[in-house]
Design brief:
- The chain folds into two domains: 238 residues, QueA-like; 79 residues, Beta Barrel (Thrombin, subunit H), CATH 2.40.10.
- Helices cover 20% and strands 28% of the residues.
- Strand 8 and strand 9 form a beta hairpin.
- It has eight helices and 17 strands.
- The protein is of the alpha/beta class.
Length: 348
């Protein structure tokens, strides 16, 4: 399979730059694999498509305001760092541009001088940064950090505080609990607390955690054979109550609906064949592409994804490449909004 097999043209104006005016007002494209048909609805119609009391699996990770802007302490050169993983208390892996320019011991100043750090070295393609205020770092990030929006959502230094506050609210699910992600599980952004309460009457709702990291968005560079692509590991935790509820639903032949590709990758990384008395945790680098068999995922609720991305390949694997391409073509024709702040798709 070539990388070009997963390319398509998307008009730039369809890339959503802002969320819908109200959470939950997005559109919903429903793709039925059995009948190869497409329906167009609104997200508030979701309950109409949940038959047989399925179980819905949500990712409750919480996005850190992990994007920091500052300067080098010696030369006053601008630096932008995206914290991606805490190696040990106070020491983080971070994505930094022009990484070769930094030397161990170099001082870094963030948050208008309130947050001091030191560049201590490199780990693969990331910087290792040690913060002086490690015990208070979470509150410092809340004060001075910015939400790590994807690069296709354009923001500038001229954007006002209202724009920043909106992103802090809307680039976070209403059920986010466990901090650790650098990107939102975007399928979950559509849900309101009211809709979740309504869905409890026709579906069982359960939660797991996958801290979305760079691996989810790492570009595929294997142009001739995408199967050679290696994803970076991401941490997950499945509460034993969620595990046993999914196992029970599976044994009762009730459908499992994963909310988002991140939940899907977790479910397709485990053997769901026994009850558990404790939470199940681990790291997954699972890369899902067409030709693979889904063991635990029956249906998928997701957004519209980037061309040639691992997320698009995953949805192709579940829906079938030709059928998904047809759905995307229709979504483009009908002016659906794409990517993180965009509209949703339900694959039945």
């Amino acid at each position: 399979m070539k990388l070009s097999d997963f390319d398509f043209h998307l008009p730039e104006e369809l890339i959503a730059q802002t969320p819908s005016p109200q959470r939950g007002e997005s559109r919903l494209l429903v793709l039925d694999r059995t009948t190869a048909t497409i329906q167009h609805a609104t997200f508030s119609d979701l309950a109409r498509y949940l038959e047989g009391h399925p179980i819905m699996v949500f990712n409750d990770t919480r996005v850190l305001p992990a994007k920091l802007e500052g300067t080098t302490g010696d030369q006053g050169r601008r630096i932008e760092a995206l914290l991606v993983k805490e190696e040990k208390p106070g020491t983080w892996q971070a994505l930094v541009k022009d990484l070769k320019r930094y030397k161990p011991g170099q001082r870094l100043v963030f948050g208008k001088g309130n947050l001091q750090a030191e560049f201590i070295g490199r780990k693969n393609d990331t910087a290792l940064i040690r913060f002086e205020q490690s015990r208070d770092l979470d509150s410092q990030l809340e004060k001075f950090g910015k939400m790590p929006l994807p690069p296709y959502i354009r923001r500038s230094s001229n954007d006002d505080a209202e724009t920043d506050q909106r992103d802090r609210e809307r680039y976070q699910t209403v059920f986010a609990r466990h901090a650790g992600a650098i990107a939102a599980p975007t399928a979950g952004l559509h849900f309101t607390s009211k809709l979740l309460d309504q869905l409890k009457g026709c579906a069982e709702l359960v939660y797991l955690t996958l801290h979305v990291g760079p691996g989810t968005f790492q570009p595929v560079r294997e142009e001739e054979d995408i199967r050679k692509h290696q994803m970076m590991e991401e941490y997950y935790n499945i509460p034993f109550e969620t595990w046993n509820a999914m196992l029970k639903a599976k044994n009762e032949s009730r459908k499992i609906i994963t909310v988002g590709t991140t939940s899907t990758r977790v479910l397709e990384s485990i053997e769901l064949n026994r009850e558990e008395e404790h939470d199940v945790s681990g790291w997954t680098d699972r890369f899902i592409y067409p030709g693979q068999t889904f063991r635990n995922t029956d249906h998928l609720l997701t957004n519209f994804h980037l061309p040639k991305s691992t997320l698009y390949m995953l949805t192709c694997a579940l829906a079938g490449s030709s059928l998904l391409r047809k759905a995307y073509e229709e979504a483009i024709q009908k002016q659906y909004r794409f990517f993180s702040y965009g509209d949703a798709m339900l694959i039945l």
